[in-house]
Design brief:
Length: 456
Amino acid sequence: MRTIPAGARVYVACVVLAALVCLTPLPGVRTPWWAVALLAALYAGCERITLPHGPGSAATRAAGRHAPQGLGTFLPVLLAAAFLLPPPAAALVALPGALLSRVEQRPRGLRRTWRAAQLAVAVWAASRVHWALDGRDAVVAPRFPYALVPAGAAVLTFCLVLTVLDGGILALAERVPVRGAWRGLFSRSLASVAAHGLAGLMMAVLWRSPYGPVAALLVLLPMYVSCWVFAQYHRERAAHQATIRALVQAVDIKDGYTRGHSERVGQASMMIARELGMDDERVEVLRFAGILHDVGKLGVPTRLLRKDGPLTPDERRIIELHPEYGHEMVRGIGFLGEARSAILHHHERLDGSGYPYGLVGGQIPEFARVVAVADAFDAMTSTRSYRRARPVPAALAELERCAGAQFDPGMVRALVRALDRHGWHPAVTAGDDRTASSVPRPTDTCPADSAGRRSP
């Protein structure tokens, strides 16, 4: 079980105390308790849906690398409560759903308590702002666009409170530097919370209309369906990531000399893709291509991958089969899309001297041309047991020298621009203590190949 730092436990206790203070006026609040119970039951039922990347869960995602199930992901009911009920009653609506939600990571009780307190404080603050701006009257007798003003202010308040509390738990529980704990949390959450806020406002307006609560519940159906679809997408995405991670780990175990190389090629490929202006979906697929470009090494005898001396022509021909092995391995994985062609052709050269098919120029798929540059760059800038790393400027100079014959000049220029913006931090991937100077350098005219001396 993961140990929660004492400071984080104190922080959670303080937020729980704040939530209790928000609930203190409940005995004297005049409100239709049947509405409170109905909204609380609705929220608890909606929380059975799983949304790994739902709004308001940034700290939870960072703490567990993925969000626990059912934590603060379906917000229209909570925001409708903020628009319909007095602040203490609105805060009460969040508690049953958060306290009864499914949590995979331990300590489960503490995580549920934290989430319940966080949501109670956020809903209370949103309701307080909404009522202070006469939002209740705007809901009872809708006056658009004025009704959007108090609702918008309430949504902003809700998102801001979640951001402040999330950043605090990140800094204390995850030991994220204070400067970066809150960075980007508000901007990443605002759009999702605003969309849920509009649904909550529609629900509140219908609730107060002559059609009554039954009509208000109809608002939840399309929103719930869209959230369910979103959850399915993220489940599928998580399965994809797990598949890729398993394949990469298998390659790293088999070829310890290049451990970590695949992840870095994926990162460099993504940098090039962004510099080329590719959309986010293609950038992600290209990252997969970079990560999996050497998966075909699983079909190459381990003795060849770990051989210390130069390869014989026959051994080199065997290793040159790894792109085709890799393509066969991933051919049935539909989500990889264009990445499959990159895995097959990332050792092709513009002048036609590459393998496996000797493609020339534009015959080489775009993704393969990107991965070829990323692959060679990381190989040159990584220290391995059989040779030292080259400095980044020297590696870029070598890529530029071979552009046009081996590499696509446009991809090389994109990498240079990306490194100017973001820099590069090459990692040591050597698995032993042998000195690089004791092993001969590659004899290729250009540095086409990630495995250098030992493999193509």
